[in-house]
Fold this protein.
Amino acid sequence: MTMGTDAPLGEVTVTQQLLAVAPSRGEHRALVGGTADPACGYADLAATVLAAAAGLAWRGLQPRDVVGVYVPDAASYVLATHAIRAAGGVPSPVAPGLTVPEMAGQLADCGARMLLTAPPLAAAALAAADRSWVRQVISFGDAPGAIGFGALLQAGTLRPAAGRPGDPALLPYARTPDGVLAPEPVSHQDMSAMLLRLAADAEIGEKDVVLAAPPAGDGRSYTALLDHALLRGATVVASQADELATAADVHHGTAMIAAGSVAIGGHERLRVFAVAS
């Protein structure tokens, strides 16, 4: 079975595909900026994801366990979601803008016992954890009361978990018409279908530098766009929404992933991939 970017629909997880191709790209930049690390090549990205996955498993993560992801930037989002999935878990993005009670409600509803976060969101994450079943909060960067992400990287490595096509790959929550947050699972087959559509339409390649604003919306399109860029070998630059114009100049950006409400003037050549906010 081949685990490249063109693997048949549903044969392997997106994380398995990324981890299969990343080492061969060596030091080609994968992630730049964000709280995770100033810069990360593709080989380092794969090594970090596998080490973090081993750390999560050592701390008790079991196959199909749901883990909350509440982070402020694209780099930590990529590392968190792929480490969780490599360990056999299911990432559940916690949307920006939720109140602490809403966050706690989502975490309790999905049964999450772990939550990955980072400053400046860590205080709210810890408060939500106290109101839910979460027992371990892991933070990119220092956060009193949280386990440092670096502590996960001491447990060795593991083989990335496989997943059946119908198994959940992502567990976003969206608001129903009456305002209630409800789960809308995305299976591995669903995710593969989204990536196949992007492969046909987005035209991102290894020479692209993709600026990525912080997580937006319920996580479905945001996750797919980031994964597509990485599977195609692009460099993803994590940037705050109000710093995208500067990042575009500094890093010679060619594309942008951001909420549909975000716009930067003077960069008409940037291809914009909008995420519903």
User: Anything to note?
Assistant: The chain has one domain: 14-152+162-275. Residues 1-10 have pLDDT under 50 and may be disordered. The two ends are 38 Å apart (CA to CA). The longest strand covers residues 66-70.
